[in-house]
Specification:
CATH topology of the largest domain: Rossmann fold
Number of helices: 18
CATH superfamily of the largest domain: Vaccinia Virus protein VP39
Structural class: alpha/beta
CATH class of the largest domain: Alpha Beta
Distance between the termini: 72 Å
Radius of gyration: 24 Å
Strand content: 5-15%
Order of helices and strands: HHHHHHHHHHHEHEEEHEHEHEEHHEHEEE
Number of strands: 12
Shape: globular
Length: 447
């Protein structure tokens, strides 16, 4: 009999592959469609297997290649995902016995394969052991070893190796596979950190203080929207790195602020909270459905100083010239800094994409900088760690615009992120135990 939990995980992985969709979107859809049949622990195992397989796909496929007489490309999508699930459980999940992983995989093969594939799945998985993973660590070529040990495309490792030592690159790869912490931001317009902690404690939800003011880290990672206080707008789900972007821009009460790429609204609403719901924030995004997400977030949080518009930030509009005190440019990027949250990026991005995305980033920065008042300040940020999207974009912009200068970012003396400050005064954070990788640069207009 097929195990329902693993079957849902299999269907999720199949759909991710077939549609090249983001795993979090497909997973949420599959869980919602089967919610009546699932318990909390079931949802946890489905999520574990899904994210685990997507994260470790390259490593797992290397092990399949070792034990399979059939080339990967010739294995059916259903069967290869059954193998991936089985190997993930055998290699990476200590609490699941190998016999259970093999038997459940064979049961799935009976339903989603044919007679030949049943024996094939059984034969391959019975050969798999933890020694297979240990052998990958002995590969002599550094790039290939890191690629297979940490399930990271070679091109990303090669790009990072241009700037970082082998040890540093390995640490970035290791941290890219860690399970991300779940952080929430206190809505200071409605409550404070102490009151929210009390409310969470009453619900037996473990929490600790984040490294940034207004943030808490939750030990519970599922069903956050169901926590008492969420619907009432007492907090938002937001990574601390994302929150730091808004804090560094530091808009003042009564100012006029532009958030050029605002959806889903996490940074926009934090700007509003910092401004104590005064002044005005204009929030743009390319599509109506994305702008609607900003509106929905603002409404839940009780924020009224945000005006949303469907707008392309790369297209110049004269009516906004010299209009804003502060501008946030959290531009589209390769996303290499958030792989532990969105592992799909590793498989959906290619090195050639850097040039195309870089041109978009340049256009947005060049265009929106004209909307800043003299003396105004602009934050350029990405969730990427590639110099082509960060340092090189800023260097080219400053070379072409003499009326802009970098304002050195200054953090509190005990701030965790101080160690990532660069000599130019910018912040380049690489994946670590606490946060995602990201880049922040603050510039101001001199005349």
């Amino acid at each position: 009999m097929v195990d329902k939990i693993r079957e849902i995980a299999l269907k999720t992985l199949y759909k991710i592959d077939k549609e090249k969709a983001f795993s979090n979107i497909v997973l949420n859809e599959m869980i919602n469609n089967n919610q009546k049949e699932l318990k909390t622990r079931d949802i946890g195992l489905i999520s574990e297997i899904t994210y685990g397989v997507v994260t470790w796909k390259l490593t797992i496929d290397s092990i399949i290649e070792k034990h399979s007489k059939i080339k990967l490309k010739k294995i059916s999508p259903w069967i290869i995902n059954i193998l991936r699930m089985g190997i993930y459980q055998i290699i990476f999940l200590d609490k699941i016995p190998k016999s259970a992983a093999v038997n459940e995989s064979v049961n799935l093969a009976k339903k989603y394969g044919n007679r030949g594939s049943i024996g094939y799945v059984n034969a391959v998985l019975r050969k798999v052991s933890e020694k297979d993973y240990e052998e990958l660590k002995k590969i002599e070529d550094d790039i290939e070893r890191l690629s297979k040990v940490y399930s990271m495309p070679k091109w990303i490792i090669q790009k990072l190796s241009e700037e970082k030592t082998l040890t540093e690159v390995e640490e970035i790869c290791r941290c890219s596979n860690l399970r991300p912490s779940l952080s929430i931001r206190v809505n200071t317009l409605k409550t404070n950190k102490e009151e929210l902690i009390k409310k969470l404690n009453k619900q037996n939800i473990e929490n600790i203080e984040g490294v940034i003011d207004d943030f808490l880290i939750l030990k519970k990672s599922s069903g956050v929207e169901k926590i008492e206080g969420f619907k009432e707008g007492l907090f938002s789900i937001q990574d601390e790195a994302a929150g730091l972007t808004a804090k560094i821009l530091n808009p003042k009460e009564g100012e006029e602020v532009l958030d050029c790429c605002s959806s889903p609204g996490g940074k926009t609403t934090y700007l509003a909270e910092i401004m104590k719901n005064t002044g005005k924030i204009i929030a743009w995004d390319l599509y109506l459905h994305r702008v609607d997400l900003v509106r929905q977030n603002a409404k839940r949080l009780g924020i009224t100083n945000i005006e949303t518009e469907v707008n392309d930030a790369s297209v110049y509009n004269e009516k906004y010239i010299n209009k804003f005190d502060k501008i946030l440019l959290d531009v589209p990027c390769m996303g290499i800094g958030v792989l532990k949250r969105k592992p799909d990026i590793k498989w959906n991005r290619e090195e050639k994409d850097i040039l195309e995305i870089g041109n978009i980033q340049k256009n947005i920065l060049e265009t929106c900088s004209k909307y800043l008042k003299v003396g105004g300040k602009l934050v350029y940020s990405t969730c990427s760690i590639l110099k082509e999207e960060n340092k090189e974009i800023i260097e080219e912009f400053l070379a072409n615009n003499e009326n802009f200068e970098i304002e050195k970012i200054k953090l509190e003396n005990n701030n965790y992120f101080n160690k990532y400050l660069e000599k130019e005064g910018t912040l380049q954070v690489y994946q670590n135990e606490i946060s995602d990788g990201f880049y922040i640069c603050k510039i101001f207009r001199t005349y």
